[in-house]
Fold:
Amino acid sequence: SATMSKRPQRPVLAALILAAGYSSRMGRFKALLPMGGQSIIAHVVGAFRLAGIERISAVTGHNAEQLEPVLHDMGVGAVRNPDYNRGMYSSVQAGVASLPEDVDACFLLPVDIPLVRPATIEMLAAGYLPEHPSIMYPRFNGQRGHPPLIARALFAEILAGTGDGGLRALLQNHQSTAT
Structure:
């Protein structure tokens, strides 16, 4: 009888789409605005799915009752953030708190940054190293891009954070491995 070879398990990666905000910059509800024949939220979900990320949830708040049926139809989880009026950091916390124990790392993407290529997500996923738990960012011309891939090792710190300076302040405390 052949012994099973111990292959390292592929990390479990999830995606959190932040869609709880007021859309004040756009004047209309961003997530459901059309883009190339589909809604922005459908476009973003599609990019993660094309990259092989199956566990996708969206954090909802403002206009949740409009967005949640659309998410449900797409098979995307909805995490309601009751404190969305406190800003994006509260949505990050609600999303991270909802992740099951077996998730090793999660992508984080505000819904108003929809032009993420599946290839970018794939590249980050392929480069994820469990032994170097940190934050990975895509880079474009030397600039940090979206979405960051955040290791579970940082989840507790995100949940304990006050949100002073927002997510950016927390992320800056961690040396990112850039691809």
Summary: The longest helix spans residues 40-50.
